[in-house]
């Protein structure tokens, strides 16, 4: 009798566990950490943040022997711009991609859900994870047009990354001579200005910047519409601040 009761209790406990599993959410939040821009602590030590949010990072390649510069100064730089790997954290996705998507109702709620589900650069481009079903059920975006638009936007990120791989040169002063501009006049992208303001003349450095401090949702296009640099591209610049 006792043996029979023990077996019954065991079966009931299994049934209880199976019911818990049956009602688990279809899209459980991830506990994995956000993607990092640099793969090791040694790499990270070489770089400094030029912005509070870490969106623009710099490392010195060669120290300068000249004076510093300030807003209002005319400067001359040589540079090479390359596509950088888009290693977005969750905050990066929200700041430079989600904020630019149209037709999203209750954006603050959607941002909170992106954080809850850990939707970083890897997940936003994962076709098996970021589906129309997930966007509807997990994020609550059930309006058909808004749902389709946000999923298509995520798909384009993957396609454009294949067409414009990391390391591809998209612009260089070698093609047309050194670039002269006045700091603080919005004649250069924000990341370039921040970098030069941190330099001494004669210095050479490298920066990596998120798209919202570079070319944003528009990227760079040739006449006729072909993209030289896709929307939302992270970029790397090698910069030399000349003595003039």
Automatic annotation (TrEMBL):
What is the protein name for this chain? Answer: peptidylprolyl isomerase
Tell me which species this is from. Odontella aurita
Q: Where is the PPIase FKBP-type domain?
A: 146-244
Q: What are the entry keywords? A: Isomerase, Rotamase, Signal
Transmembrane portions of the chain: none
- Recorded catalytic activity of this chain's protein: [protein]-peptidylproline (omega=180) = [protein]-peptidylproline (omega=0)
Where is it found, in Gene Ontology cellular component terms? cytoplasm
Q: Where is the signal peptide?
A: 1-22
Gene Ontology molecular functions: peptidyl-prolyl cis-trans isomerase activity
Q: Which InterPro entries match?
A: FKBP-type_PPIase (IPR050689), PPIase_dom_sf (IPR046357), PPIase_FKBP_dom (IPR001179)
């Amino acid at each position: 009798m006792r043996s029979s009761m023990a077996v019954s209790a065991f079966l009931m406990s299994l049934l209880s566990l199976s019911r818990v599993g049956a009602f688990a959410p279809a899209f459980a939040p991830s506990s994995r950490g956000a993607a990092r821009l640099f793969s090791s602590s040694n790499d990270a030590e070489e770089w400094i943040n030029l912005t509070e949010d870490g969106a623009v990072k710099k490392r010195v390649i060669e120290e300068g022997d000249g004076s510093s510069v300030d807003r209002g100064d005319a400067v001359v730089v040589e540079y090479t711009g390359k596509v950088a790997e888009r290693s977005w954290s969750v905050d990066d996705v929200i700041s430079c991609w989600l904020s630019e998507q149209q037709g999203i109702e209750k954006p603050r709620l959607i941002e909170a859900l992106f954080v809850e589900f850990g939707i970083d650069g890897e997940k936003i481009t994962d076709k098996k994870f970021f589906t129309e079903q997930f966007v509807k059920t997990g994020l609550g975006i059930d309006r058909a047009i808004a749902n389709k638009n946000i999923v298509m936007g995520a798909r384009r990120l993957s396609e454009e990354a294949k067409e414009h791989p990391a390391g591809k040169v998209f612009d260089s002063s070698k093609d047309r001579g050194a670039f002269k501009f006045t700091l603080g006049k919005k004649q250069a992208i924000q990341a370039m200005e921040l970098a030069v303001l941190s330099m001494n003349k004669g210095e050479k450095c490298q920066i990596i910047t998120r798209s919202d401090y570079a070319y944003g949702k528009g990227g760079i296009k040739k006449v006729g519409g072909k993209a030289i640099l896709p929307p939302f591209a992270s970029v790397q610049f090698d910069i030399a601040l000349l003595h003039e």
